[in-house]
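I trust your eye. Have a critical look at both lines of this record:
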Amino acid sequence: MTRFPHLKQDFAASLVVFLVALPLCVGVAVASGVPAELGLVTGIVGGIVTGLMRGSSLQVSGPAAGMTVLVFEAVQEFGLPALGVIVLATGLLQIAMGALRLGRYFRAISVSVVEGMLAGIGLVLIAGQLYSLIGAKAPDSGLEKIAGLPEALVDAFGSGAALASLAVGVGTVAVLVLWKRVPAKVRTVPGPLAAVGLATLAALVLDLPVATVEVQGLLGSIQPPSLGAFGELANVGLLGTIVAFTLIASAESLFSAAAVDRLHDGPRTEYDKELLAQGAGNTVCGVLGALPMTAVIVRSAANVQAGARTKASRVLHGVWLLLFAALLPNVLAYIPIPALAGILVHAGAKLVPVRSIVSLWRDHRGEALILVVTAVSIVAVSMFEGVLIGLALAIVKTAWEASHIKMEIVDKGAGPVQAYLSGNATFLRLPKILDSLESLPQDRPVELDLSGLHHLDHACRTALETWAERHSDAGTEPVRVTTAA
């Protein structure tokens, strides 16, 4: 025991994380449009492969609700055989970024963009899973999912099977919401497991006509990418999907690591090594044709709260998932699909930061706008384009705020008019600068003092020179320009 002084705490924590991860792995896989066992494969790799590596000692990795929408779109567009290629390439890119020590730079991504990304994912996830609650097929695009919901719900009330499915799903969500209010002894069973377990029991006892998980067996579901599948790398759309997978999976993992660090007093995350660990895990998942992995805050928080002290807990949770997948795979066939949909509706709701939006709107309206625009863009267009729009908006906002400019005009009534510029003169503030200069009297000499500028970009310099020439051409004395020494 001296070699493993915290084995007791880590063993207990690993069981809790396993029980939390099991329904989530299966639910994410089903919602992603792939065999349920592939979710378990990713959870196993996240526990055993990524769990053994250095980075964040208490963070737990596996299939994440935040990647569900992107994976579903990729499988629909390129097919399941191409998923392994996408995930493998994602893993190799993450390894390269970790080796190049780029992990720390993900902390520079605007928090509003990341929260907007998660909010957009959450909205699309909720909209899509509401169809699964009633046993209906969801439309492809985010807008179509939302627009078609009222009609789908009205149709559901005319079908006994749809109502039974809806009851199971709503009951699952209700258990998840109310679970924190049950006695502490009962709460030793994780909420997601209790919700799915009760839903499964209800469906069996009442013989409800609801769809259940299709089981193919662990080995039957693993589909390593064939050589022919790598030919898809010539597809520009697939390359864009790989970039999206890489950026989103990396950002989600590293932001999760920062959140987990706030939950415990142990060793801090080494971001570049964590990115290497995530890359190694995704590379293995790609070879096995499984789902992509990220660090998952729900499992990570459960790990910390259960008393985990070292990475042994997350490795053991991967071992328990492996034993379950190998010995009890047929148990999955009893789980109702609407129960898994309920789990993901609840998870999607947690991704929408309503409190953050309200707080940001009070104090930082620009950041709130970035969050909302990113989320709406993801719903209206797609994941990749939505994130790019959010990043572009964040860059423009930062550039605008960085280009503070102050102009002071001193006119004593006689002699030259003095204009003092200070701050950062960039093209973003050019209209304001030129409006002020062009309003000066044309028949008076002007002294333009630029010594207070910290930065003068090429566009502003050219515009100021052009204005000075025009002003001098009016017959007055040439504009005298003073610059910093």
